[in-house]
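Give me structure tokens for this 120-residue protein.
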Amino acid sequence: QLQLVESGGGLVQPGGSLRLSCAVSGSTLDYYALGWFRQAPGKEREGVSCIIISSSRTDYADSVKGRFTISRDSAKNTMYLQMNSLKPEDTGVYYCVADPVSLCGHPRNWGQGTQVTVSS
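Here you go.
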């Protein structure tokens, strides 16, 4: 069973940066993509970014394009989300996900989440 554990969240001022990490334990052979979702207070979860395991092709929500970068280090079994130029609207709980069939449209596995707060 694939397990995902996020880390790296915290409090940051607007314009600042954070890097989230997702430690992946277990085999990813049966999975197509890994990615990040987030949930802001009072809002539904939304997809942030996704990376195809085999090709490293990436995809981003329009709201984070040009500011966030998703990457994966297969040797360390870790996925990252580098977040720059953070805005207050980026505040939320960020979840690492694994999807067996699509570009994060049908995630099967979820991490426990890590809180990101962007505030002055």
